[in-house]
Amino acid sequence: MAGNLFGKMAADTFGLSDIGKIIDQKDFDKVDGDDYIMHEDGEKIFFVIKSKSDEYVFTNRGLLHVDGASAVSKKRTVRRHEFSNEKVHSITLETAGTVDLDVEIKFSFENTDFSIDVDKNQLEKLKDLYKTLLEISRIQGLNYKLLDDGKNGLKMANDALSRCKIEGNNIAKIAEDLTNFNLDFMEALRRTYNNRDFSEVYEKYINN
């Protein structure tokens, strides 16, 4: 136990650990991840954590992870996680102990887990990100519930119609109209309850 503790202290002291730094807004355009942001489509950076080998770029649409194989390698892998496709969950913030030089934020995008060490002197800024991710997770959870309620309501309506007797020569037209209605209804549900842009949440909690 003592060996592990002193090993961690030595790694932190001599810069061998991978503690991230929160980047100021004025320097967002200097990070590698900025090259992969969809600026043309209104994507905007709100928060960046940069370590020796990785960048975590939080945008109004999700997370861009620029993954470095090592601190000395120039090879990078860029992965995107979008709020419209993946739910954010399991958000925790671990503050520093007496001898720790870093704090840690953990969260998941669907089935992908993240654990990021950050300089403990930047804890207050990291709290803003923690609150932002919590609120996005809450909104996503509510939206998923409302989306499911809408789907279930539509299914109940279709089941009721299927038990009705339809007579006449316009059965094909009725079927076509019902199909189009279902498609339009589902598209409206997705537009309403599947947020793609969380700019307002970032602007509420992130203090730049």
Short characterization:
With 208 residues, the protein is of the alpha+beta class. It is 39% helix and 25% strand. It has one domain: Bacterial Pleckstrin homology domain (PH-domain like), CATH 2.30.29.50.
Map the helices and strands.
Layout: H1 2-13, E1 21-22, E2 45-50, E3 54-59, E4 62-68, E5 76-82, E6 88-94, E7 102-109, E8 112-119, H2 123-162, H3 171-193, H4 199-205
Antiparallel strand pairs: 1-2, 2-3, 3-4, 4-5, 6-7, 7-8
Domain Bacterial Pleckstrin homology: 14-136
Protein name: YvbH-like oligomerisation region
Domain YvbH-like oligomerisation: 151-208
Number of domains: 1
Provide mean pLDDT, rounded.
82
The largest β sheet comes out as:
5 strands, antiparallel
What name is given to the CATH topology?
PH-domain like
The shape is elongated
User: What is the name of the CATH architecture?
Assistant: Roll
**Cα distance spanning the termini:** 40 Å
CATH class: Mainly Beta
Instruction: Say how many strands there are.
Output: 8
Give the ordered list of helices and strands. Answer: HEEEEEEEEHHH
Considering the protein shown, what is the CATH homologous superfamily?
Answer: Bacterial Pleckstrin homology domain
Structural Rg: 23 Å
For the biggest β-sheet, the strand order reads: 1-2-3-4-5
Pfam family, one: bPH_1
Organism: Asaccharospora irregularis DSM 2635
Domain Bacterial Pleckstrin homology: 14-136
InterPro entries: PHb (IPR012544), PHb_sf (IPR037063), YvbH_oligomer_dom (IPR021722)
